[in-house]
Amino acid sequence: MRRADAQDVPRPPLLVVVVLVAVGLLPPIAASARPGGKVRPVLPGATHGDRFPAGADRILRVQLKRARRVTKAKFGAASAGGLADGAWCGAERATDDTTYAATTGPRIKVIYAYPSDRPNRFSTMRDLIQADARDMTDIVLAASSNTKTLRFDVGTVCGAGYLDIISVKLPRTSAQYRQVNASSRMSMLTSDLASSVSGMTGKRNFLVYADATSAGDGVAGIGSMFLDDRPGSDNPANAGNLWAVAFGNGSDPDFSGGRLTTVLHEVSHNLGAVQDSAPNSTGAGHCTDEQDVMCYDDGGPTSTMSNPCAVQAYDCGQNDYFNPAPAGGSYLATHWNVHRSVFLCAPSACVGSSVGGGNPAPVANIAVRDLGGAATTTVTAGGRLVLDASGSSDDESVAEYAWDVGADGSVESRAASFVAAFSSAGTVPVKLTVRDGYGASATATTSIQVAAPAAAPPVTTTRPTTGNADDRGRRQISSALRASLTRLKGALRDAQRSARLKVRFTAPQAGWLVASVTANGRKVAAASWSVKGGRSEQFTARLSRKARARLAKGGKVALRLEFYGADGGSTVARQSLKLPRR
Length: 582
Description:
By secondary structure, the chain is of the alpha+beta class. It is built from 8 helices and 23 strands. The strands form 7 sheets. The chain has a 6-stranded mixed beta sheet with strand order 1-8-9-7-2-6, sandwiched between helices. The N terminus is likely disordered.
C-alpha cells in the first residue's frame, strides 16, 4: 500500500486501511486523497509469488502446534487465555450479552454478519469462530513467552470461556457489498453495523466475519490501523474502535481461504502492526520476513522479501512489531510494540472478572461431623472430625477446594472433604476456599472447640485399631484396602483419558475412606467418602484437566488409601505403579 504524498496527509496519527490479498490477483493501486487532504484506503497489489494467504493456514498451524506445546507445558491442558476448547456454547443473539459478560478492560468483540438475501450460517461458523479465537490466543501467548495474549469479549449463559458473538443480519444484499472494492465494502459494513455496537461500553475493537461479501477478487480481509510508532500508552492503537473484517464467500466454512491467518493478520493491524519505520517494513503496513503472519509482498516501496524463519512466526525475529522483552535501545524498545497494547492481557487476567452477573462466584459451605456421621463442632484433644465441603456449589462445578485449619495460611487438604486431627485444646478456626473453573472464588469459616481430655491419654506403643480389638479385624481392613488398591491401579490406566477415577471398597464397619494419587511427586487427586459397614460401595473422584494431563505423561504414580474407623483409629495401605506415556 502506498500512501498519498506528504502534502496530502494530515499530521499523525494517520489512520489507514490495509488488506490481505491472494497471490498475484490484484495489480498495485496507488493511494489517492479525497478533497480536504484525508487519506483514502487503498488496495496494495501482490506481485510476489509467495503463499500468503494461499496455504497460509497450513503453515501457521505448524507454529500453532508448537505454541500449544509451550502453553500446555506451562498451564496444563486448559487454555491459558480462558477460552473453552471444542464447540461454542451459548444462545445466538444480535446484541451484546451484558448479563454473562466475563471480562473487563479493552477487548475484541467478534461479530458474525450476513447479507439480507443470504442464509444465516451462524450454526456452521460459531464453532470455527470459537476455535479461531482460541488458536489466536495460543499463538500470541507463545510469542510473548507466556506473558500476554489477546483479550476477547467473552461470557455466555454456558460460561466465561465462550466468545460473546453477536449475529447480525445486514441491511444490504450480497451483490451490493460485492460490487465495490474492499475499502468501500468495509465502509459499508462498519456503517451498517454501527447501530449494533453503539451501546457497548468500554474500549472495543471489532472482528467481523462478513459472510457472502467476498467479491472473488482475492481479497481475504481488511483491517484499519494507525501509522504512529510512538512507544507510549498514548499511542492511538490503544484507543479502540478499529475494525478487522474477513470476507466469506457464503458457502465455504474457510471463508475465502486461510481464515485463521486472515483474522490474526487483520486483528494485528488494529493493534498497530506493522509500522512503516519497522526494520523489515514493506513501507505499506506489512513486513518482508516471508513466513511471518504479517509479511507478504504487498507492492510497497521496500517489499523485497527474505526468508529468515523456518516456519511462519508471529513477528519473525521479534524485531518489527512484537517482542515481550526488547533489548534496551532496540527498535521495539523505542517504538510502538504491540506487546504493550491494552487489548492484550496477562493470562490470569483475560477471563474471570464478573460483570453484570457473568460467571457468578461459587458458594462455599462447611459441614462438620464426627467419625460416626453426627453433626458437631466439638472434639476432645487428640480426636478427629470430618470437614466436609460437598455442600458447596457453583453454576457449573467447583474446580478446587482449599482447607486452612488453624488460620496459619497453609493448606491442609484440597479434597472436598477430609478427616482432620485436633491435638491441642482451644478454639481452632477453619477456613474453606472454593474456586470455579474460571477463577472466581468464595470462602466460608467455622470454629472447632477442642476440649482437654479428662485424663492424660495412656502411653502406648501399639497402633490404634479400627474398632476390632483383635488381629482379625485389622486384617479385614488391610485386606479390603489392598483389594481396593489393586482395582484402583487398573482404574488409573483408564483415568489417563477419563475425567473420573472409581474406587470400590468394602469396610467391615462404618467410617471414612480417604484416597490420594500422586504422580511424579505431585498430588493429582484426593477425595474422601463416608462408608457403611459390611457393604461393597463404589466411590468416584473427579480428575481435573491438569490432573489428567499429568497422568497422561506417565511415570511413577503412588496410591494411598486410609480408613478411619468410628473409634478414631486408622489403617493405611500404599502401592505404586508405573504408567506408560499416552
